[in-house]
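Lysine N-acyltransferase MbtK structure dump, as promised
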Amino acid sequence: MTRTDKQHSAAIGTFTVRPLDPAVDAELVHGWVTHPKAAFWLMGDASLADVEREYRSIAAHPHHEAFIGLHDGEPAFLIERYDPTEVELKGLYEAEPGDVGMHFLVAPTDTPVHGFTRAVITAVMAFLFADPSVRRVVVEPDVTNSAVQALNKAVGFEVLREIAKPEKDALLSACTREQFEAATGGNDR
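structure tokens r here:
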């Protein structure tokens, strides 16, 4: 799923992705990452300037990218894609060729839709695997984040081991293209 590619879920709607523009999107993303439901993003006390600075830094980084995910054309989630040998997991695990790291965050809402977050992570994984060079997605959720661990398992992630990062204890987890296809029934829509 690139800027023009779409993923569709009959029950949920259409997902698209565009690059995050720090100057345009900082206010939107600030509301998401500072919301209490985003506690695991560790940005709860971040100012708008802090968020814009963070995403300007990501935009300038050669091994880290951020994207806004759209649901039926409206901003609904955040994706970060990174090279785990250079960012986040550098020196903390045994990288394999074709590894890509990922973070995702669904925007807070007062009207949740059943199955929406699972549809988002499925769309995020399809977006990552749309790149033929990606063979495996690696993630490092907080060991206490049981909600995202359940979502990760639902799309094929396997916990490799616990790792200590400076900001948290994390569950290093990985999902190959084949594991994703098996978990989603070959239907990445």
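The CA atoms of residues 52 and 145 lie 26 Å apart.
lmk if u need the other ones
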